[in-house]
Every structure is written in C-alpha cells, then in structure tokens.
Amino acid sequence: MKRLTYKDFSEIRNDQTRLIDVREADEYRAVHVKGAELWPLSRIQEGALPEEDERETFVICRSGARSAVAASIFERMGWRECTNIEGGTLAAQEMGADHVE
C-alpha cells in the first residue's frame, strides 16, 4: 500500500482518481472531502466492497488509520494498489473550504 499526504493528493487529483471515504455515515455527513464516495470501514470488514474500476484508488478517513486498514483489505481482495491518504479529512479541513463540504 502506498501512502500520500492529503496535500500531495490534492495536487494530483483528477478524473482518473477515485477517493473512497471509509468513515461512518454520520462523520461523512458532518464533513467530507469534495467528491469522496462513502464506503464505511464497518461495511468493508463485513465483506461489502465497492466495485473496482479503472481509476487509481485513494482511501481516506479522519486521520489515516482506518483508511490504512481499508486499503489493505482492498489489496488483499485483489484490487490494484491502493493509496492511503495520511492526515485524512483533518488535513483537508486545514487546507480550507475549497476541499471539503
């Protein structure tokens, strides 16, 4: 699993990147990175996985711990390499309102 800071992710993000937020729904509703799709880690651990597509996958949570677990699960299930966003949504919030909703 690769690791990347949120700042570095924000600089390379484009139409070919996919951002999966693995926090719970209430956390996601409170604040999330623009364009992130919600797949709670609790569901992933139960075996519910999003369908993999051709985009490069990045995984985010609040600070980087849960997203590391989820990225490892994705890779064990045969996904191409996933990248964990270190600093998570907290780092996105620090970068300002342009990054979160």
TrEMBL record:
<feature type="domain" description="Rhodanese">
    <location>
        <begin position="13"/>
        <end position="101"/>
    </location>
</feature>
<protein>
    <submittedName>
        <fullName>Rhodanese-like domain-containing protein</fullName>
    </submittedName>
</protein>
<dbReference type="InterPro" id="IPR036873">
    <property type="entry name" value="Rhodanese-like_dom_sf"/>
</dbReference>
<dbReference type="Pfam" id="PF00581">
    <property type="entry name" value="Rhodanese"/>
</dbReference>
<dbReference type="InterPro" id="IPR001763">
    <property type="entry name" value="Rhodanese-like_dom"/>
</dbReference>
<dbReference type="InterPro" id="IPR050229">
    <property type="entry name" value="GlpE_sulfurtransferase"/>
</dbReference>
